[in-house]
Structure formats: C-alpha cells, structure tokens
Amino acid sequence: MAVEEKNAIVFDNVSKFYGEVLGINRVTLTFEPGITGLVGPNGSGKTTLMNLMTGLLHPTQGEIRVLGESPDHPERLFSRLGYCTQFDSFPAGMNGYQFIYSFLRVHGFTASEAKKLSWQALERVGLEGAAKRRVAGYSKGMRQRVRLAQAISHGPRVLVLDEPLNGLDPMARAEVIEVFQALAEAGCHLIISSHILHEVDMISDRVVLLSSGYVVAEGEIGGVRSETMEEHPIQVLIRCDKPSLVASRLFEQDHVVEATLHDDHGGLEVRTRDADRFYTLLGEVVLAEEVKIETVTVADADVRAVYEYLIGNEGEGR
Q1: Would strands 61-66 and 9-18 be described as parallel, antiparallel, or unpaired?
Q2: Which CATH architecture does the domain made up of 233-299 adopt?
Q3: Run of H or E including 180
Q4: pLDDT tens, position by position, 5-30
Q5: May I ask the CATH class of domain 4-218?
Q6: pLDDT, tens digit, for every residue of 90-110?
Q7: What three-state secondary structure class fits 59?
Q8: Separation between Cα atoms, residue 64 and residue 54, nearest integer Å
Q9: How many Å apart are CA 168 and CA 150, to the nearest integer?
C-alpha cells in the first residue's frame, strides 16, 4: 500500500547543483515513518539531501514534500521537523537549558511552555544534571546530546540527524539509540546519517546508500543485498566440530565457489552464489554426517559489505 503524502517525505526527481558541482542528481525517494539510515562517504550527497529536506537549500530541479508541506515554508515546517546538524557551534556564554529555552521562545512558545519542554528534552537525553553548566564546558558527547535535545524539544514528527552518534561514549550511545527507537515506535520519521555502519544496521528500518550524488540502493538491508548483489557470492561463517568434512562436501557443489578452513580448525568460511541451495545442502550434510553446529552466520549481510560491493572501499568512510 502506498504511503499517503501527508505521512511521508517525498523527493520527486530532485537535483541540486552548486554551480557546476553536483550535490545530488535525480533523486526520487519516499521516506516512511521509522528510522532510515543514510550511508555514504564524504561528498556522497548525504548532507545536501538533509539540507534540502529541511529547507536550508532549494533544489535546482524537482519537488520535495515533507508530510505534505513544501520546505519553502519554514514557519509551517518548523512545527513538524527538528534538525540536529553535525556543526559544533553554540552562542557564547549559554548553558544547556538556555540553549533550548531560547530556541523555543524564538519560535513562539510561551515562557512556561518553553521551560517545561526544555526540561523534558534535557531529561530525555540524560543532561538534566548539566543543564545549568555552560555549553562551552561540555564534552563533545554532551554537546552532541544537547543539540539532539534542542532538535526534539518541540515534539516534531520528523527528525533529521547528521552524525548524531559521533562523540558519544558507549553508554550514552545506547541511551540515545533507545530515544531514537522510542520516537520511531511513536510514528516519527528519523533520517539518520552515520559512519558507524554496524549501528546503522542495528537501528535502521531501511537504508539509503549514496555515492557521488546518486542513490545507488535503498530499502531494508537484506532486500538491498539480495536485489543488488546477486552476482556477488554470499559469505557464510560456520563453526562446527567437523569443518574439513563439511568443506569437502559443500565444495562438491557448483554454487559453492570457495570453502576455507579457519586457522583454529574450529570452523570454515564458505562463499556461495545460491543461499537457498546452500542452506538445504548444509542441513543434509549435518544430518548425514552427524555434524555438531555451533553457529552459522552470514558474514556480509551488513551495510558495510553491501556498500563496498556497490562502490568499492571508499564506503568505509562517511
């Protein structure tokens, strides 16, 4: 079922050029509620896409609709959207509470509303104890969280977050991810750019892979792999008690292109062009040879592997 425009973010054949330099080109996307991860190296078009979505840039061609609204109307867009940029800049002398409170006041909230919403946002990101300290004295992770608190303080339905996990320690990162997941469960749209690719896997409902201003793939990561990488053998790691026997039986099949034993002789890595036939065969071998399987893991079904297959090792960056 197609998502109604009033509940989606829609890019319709959108391009953005900076003079003769390409930002993004002919992008057609629909962002549904939930968490969408944007993946790509520097210069891939992630920030351009985010700035177009938030109205900070205007497209050279094409149309953008955010929950049915045009980004050309920032006053209406503000009530629906929050943006946490990667830029680490704050007004001089402000503490964390003032940073959020003044933002809300500028955008029309009463003093009592702004006070209540500011404290709620600070509590949600775990900064209420540091609220009256100057932001200039915050650690990098604390500054990241106070920007996030500002972005969510007015209860937007759309959150655009550029590298929101950068600089957070593991505990703070886990807490922030919980906030993202709770917002997604409540029906919000979260567009998250990140270079921490295993966390994109963990938190995203879908991914958009960008390269040099073009969308090279999009969708749920498993679907992206199966649809765009059929020509690339799948890598499967098997830990078992008879790896040599399993390797010899599997390698007899034409769809298995490689079977390599682990150095500790406690497992093997197999590359196959046909996952369905491979798993059927593995089951037959396990039953026939009484093999004790410890684990079977797909080694390359994550964002990093997909991106490297699609555009090469440049995908290891942002």
Answers
A1: antiparallel
A2: 2-Layer Sandwich (3.30)
A3: helix 170-185
A4: 788 999 999 999 998 899 999 999 99
A5: alpha beta
A6: 888 999 999 999 999 998 999
A7: coil
A8: 10
A9: 17
